[in-house]
Amino acid sequence: MEEGSRSCSSCSSDDDPFARRSVRRRYDNNPLPENFDLISNLPDSILVHILSSLPLTDVIATETLSKRWRFLWKMVPNLVFRHCARYPCSKPSALVSFIDMALLLHECSRIDEFSVGFEYCPKFRSAVDVWLHVAIGKNVEEIDLDFPFYSYTLPQHLYTSSSLVKLTLTRCSMEEPRAVVSWPSL
Questions:
Q1: Cα dihedral sign for 64, 69, 70, 72?
Q2: Which helix (H) or strand (E) holds 117?
Q3: How far is CA 171 from the centre of its chain?
Q4: CB neighbourhood size of 160 (10 A)
Q5: Cβ 118 vs Cβ 145: under 8 Å
Q6: Mutual angle of helices 125-137 and 92-105, in 10-degree steps
């Protein structure tokens, strides 16, 4: 054997930096505190992306988790409101108030999806008109209106929403537009 070379039997893993060893990660020796919250330490953009896949009533409920989550719901670009008995606002009038409040506090500069489904009746017409006006002002791409009982007549300003890509309507009627329809992507 040449001088300076070692045989396998004389090599110890302490001397050989390439020897296979059991590698313990740093956090194995220092476990995280029991109440450490990994999810809350994610960047806002990732949290908002995760929250975007949930119904808005569930998203807003996350504000009670911690101060870190308090205002994240305001940045969610998907606003989906459905009348459902499991939510605190199970009466249509309560849902209308809830949507009013959510749109008033919503801070995202755009709305990707605006979806509303509840037991619409004509007394809610002005509220729905305002919701659509807000959504259009934030360049909404998708609108889904699902009103099972009474027909809702779409407002004229909806015809000028050039950002609209998808429009789904249930029990909605359309009047003849008084201006040019501007739906280049629809």
A1: negative
A2: strand 113-117
A3: 26
A4: 14
A5: no
A6: 30
**And the tokens for 155?**
């407002």
Structure tokens at 146: 């699902």
In angstroms, the CA 110 to CA 135 distance is: 8
pLDDT tens figures, 111-151: 999 999 988 999 999 999 999 999 999 999 999 999 988 99
pLDDT in tens, 62-113: 888 878 888 888 999 999 988 764 444 558 888 899 899 999 999 999 999 9
Separation of alpha carbons 83 and 60, rounded Å: 15
pLDDT at 32: 63
Question: Which regions of the chain does DSSP assign to beta strands (E)?
Answer: 78-82, 113-117, 142-146, 152-153, 166-170, 172-173
Contacts of 70 (CB under 8 A, 6+ apart): 63
Q: What is the mean pLDDT of residues 46-63?
A: 87
Residues whose CB falls within 8 Å of the CB of residue 5, separated by 6 or more in sequence, listed in order: none
Distance between first and last Cα of the chain: 79
The DSSP line for 6-44 is: --GGG--TTT-TTS---PPPHHHHSPPPTT--TGGGS-H
